[in-house]
Amino acid sequence: MVFHPREGRSGDGSTSVSRRAFLTGAAATGLAATLAACGSSSTKGAGGTTTTTQPLALPRPNDPVTWPLYQSNPAIADGLQPEKNATLKLFNWVAYINPKVLKDFGKKYNCKVELTTFNTMDEALAKLRSGQFEFDVFVPTVDVIGQLVASKMISPLNHSYIPNITQAWSAFQNPFYDQSWQYTVPYTIFTTGIAWRKDHVTEDPYASANPWAFPWNAKYKGKIALLDDAREGLGIGMLKNGITDLNTSDPAQLQTATNSLLELVKLVNLHIDNNDYSSIPSGQTWIHQAWSGDMAAAQNYMPKGTSVDVIGYWFPPSGIGPVGNDTMTILANGKNPVLAHLFLNYLNDLNIALENISFNGYMQPLTGVTPEVLVQQGILPPSLTSTVVLESMFATGLRELELSPALGAQYQQAWLRVSSGV
Amino acid sequence: MSVESRQGRWADRMQGRWVWAGFALPGILWLIFLFIVPFYVVLSIAGGELNAIFQSPEPIWNPLQWTGANFVAVFHDLVGQTAFVGPIFLRTVVYVAVASVLSLLIAYPAAYFVARYAGRRKVLFLVLLIAPFWVSYMMRMLAWIGLLQTSGYINRALLDLGLISQPVNWLGGKPMTIILGLVYGYIPYLILVLYAGLDRIDQRLLEAGRDLGLNRARTFWRVTLPLSRQAILTGMLITALPMVGDYFTNQMLSGAPSTAMIGNVINSQLNTASQQSKGAALSVLLLVFLLVPMLYYVVQTQRASREAY
Question: Fewest CB atoms within 10 Å of the CB: A170, A198, B132, B142?
């Protein structure tokens, strides 16, 4: 197992911000954040003028979206040679790719690879909109693809450079959020479940009648946390109440979830943070809503003398729980589009992906990435195979997807109330 | 005296005047670029709109076109049926008030000691007081997390001393931890300001008080304390204002909604693109609120300097 970067990123990790963080501890001060937002508000910078005022399409599994192609934003031609003496610029989440993979890619294609990282999607988009950066490859979440396409910030892909797409699970060869994968290839996949410390918590979510209600247990007051993410947090509030449409526009359902969460805040003096990957191993929390990839990497954070076997991760065996994935895209104002295509192809190769997962914890949706392989290669401890994301889960799983601006604001407001405890 | 030399002197005087005024230039530029311009940007965002596609704030630069929508929204968060910022605001004021009083109780004797009794070791004590600044605030808070953990040194020491029978979950969202964190974070500033004020007090005034028959306690009460009033006011202001906006201490030492302060609300809003303009509006309102103690301070300072002459 290689050294995991989140170790040492910050003492015990309590401040460090996980990649999907909303509250960034180390992030800039409020003023700086506002300034960044200001400097980036021009939508012209990144290679296209945005005049559309029409609302963006909202992709759903039962309502897939084919994004428009624009003549002013074409894909590259077939059969081009990779750029010479080039530096491929990758814009990615913090600690979300194995540096060895980058080095190997550079060796293979005789180029340099430069990695720039971000902590939140908002921060990343603000930087990209400023148009001052010439990144080649960007790793967006599914919910912002529409924005990126409409503003012509990402280029359509030329499929002839990416034969490895055939290694991806079939659902990802024609995803609902980008039909015919015109703009994206899949990157990582994850589930959102509940992690718990078997040595402190006597109950077992697998034996519980309503495992989503697992955190609602006053016995472990002060030792329970949810993820600091509006959608994930409200999501567990909905699931606890049997609401499985995590994109619901029913105000009553949103209210039910909010009320349950406010009750949880008082019941257990709830914590809200994205340190699941470190605070469960350290024992700072005993029950934590968690991302599968963070728990898969938990063995890197165990204190000396504590076995990783004390950690459990629950995701409904029925597969009816939150699942998600990130994507890789090519930015329109990058200088190395050919290398960028080759990079997307490279990351979708099984052996490279396994190398990457061994560092990342987060899996990639390729045929051949199975629980058996991951355990056999020592990437995953046998006690945490429940963190593996199976292809079938993308058929049954629930997705937190983009909402209309007005509804999105309601979700944000509800979450702000929960995280303020009032 | 010849005309020439008189003119020469006049030129010298003018030149001198410009040179001295020029010393203010760096300060003025600093204020313009690092306060006035950014603050105008915040106002433009608070009075602005959201981009239709990105849901990110779109500042409006012309003050005549500013909209009040964000301020109205923030107002409804502050008071009314669905208000949640109001209670948080009160909580913040209480935390800061308790932390300020605690700070003063600790800082005043420390500053008094250094100013009056440290003698030749004054410099040493001052250096020791500034020493915490050699380590960044974040690192110090991280150290506290280590110390305060359930199995950390503080719990172990308290257990060994028999003061507690069960480890205390200090980081489990306790208001006390936050308040002590605030005290710890800002007290060096208070001590330094108090020291500067106490050190300046003319010793002869104290001697005069003693000569006139006051005992030590009454000298302190009748002479030292009134003379250090201005330093207390300055120090409290210098520490309380940043405490009100502090979000980091809370995030590090608690992370629980039950202890969230106003800074945490603003920070949450600023970290979500679609909420940033509301965050900007809330910041502006907070600033207006904080102007009240600021103005009080200005009035008091002016009165004090008038009394001094």
Answer: A170
